[in-house]
Write a structure and sequence with these properties.
Elements lengths: L4 H29 L3 H13 L1 E3 H8 L3 H13 L3 E5 L7 E5 L1 H21 L6 H19 L4 H11 L2
Antiparallel strand pairs: 1-3, 2-3
Helix pairs in contact: 1-5
Pfam families: MarR_2 (PF12802)
InterPro entries: HTH_MarR-typ, MarR/SlyA-like, WH-like_DNA-bd_sf, WH_DNA-bd_sf
Protein name: MarR family transcriptional regulator
Length: 161
């Protein structure tokens, strides 16, 4: 069944707004911190949790595990994270943010916040923000109700044996 015209319009407005915001944020992150958007996302998650497994990071930022391994390697080379085997699970790798990684997040965060405020929130009232937050939380939770991508791959690999 095709989307109704108003649904299609909403979908296109959403994807365009997200693309424009991500592009502006990516430019700011590159200029102020020599980071990609995904690298910033990884560092931001780690700055809150301090240490996560690669699988937790991949599921949290919705990124492939192979892509995440590459990005974590770049961050490790830059001295922003460390990686080590988990003492609790020999299959897991723990990623820990370093003091330099925390500093980098703190350096780029003000510009990041300024862009998000200017491009997104400056156009919304408090009521708009609350409504949009509720709607997007509901949509995100629905999308995340499926098993994490990492567990789907593990299950497929296990079932194919």
């Amino acid at each position: 069944m095709p989307l109704a015209p108003h649904q299609l319009g909403t979908y296109f407005a959403l994807t365009e707004a997200v693309s424009l915001l991500q592009h502006a944020v990516e430019q700011q992150l590159r200029a102020e911190g020599d980071l990609s958007l995904i690298q910033f996302g990884l560092l931001a998650r780690l700055s809150e949790a301090h240490r996560l497994t690669m699988t937790e990071l991949a599921d949290g930022v919705v990124y492939s595990r192979s892509g995440l391994t590459y990005q974590a390697g770049l961050l490790e080379k830059a001295g922003l994270v460390t990686r080590e085997p988990s003492p609790d699970d020999e299959r897991a790798t723990l990623v820990t943010i370093t003091p330099a990684g925390l500093e980098r997040v703190q350096r780029v965060l003000p510009g990041h916040v300024e862009i998000v405020e200017r491009m997104l929130f400056s156009q919304l009232t408090e009521e708009d923000t609350a409504a949009l937050g509720g709607i997007m939380t509901r949509v995100r939770d629905h999308m995340r109700s499926a098993p994490p991508r990492s567990s789907i791959r593990k299950r497929k690999a296990r079932d194919s044996r």
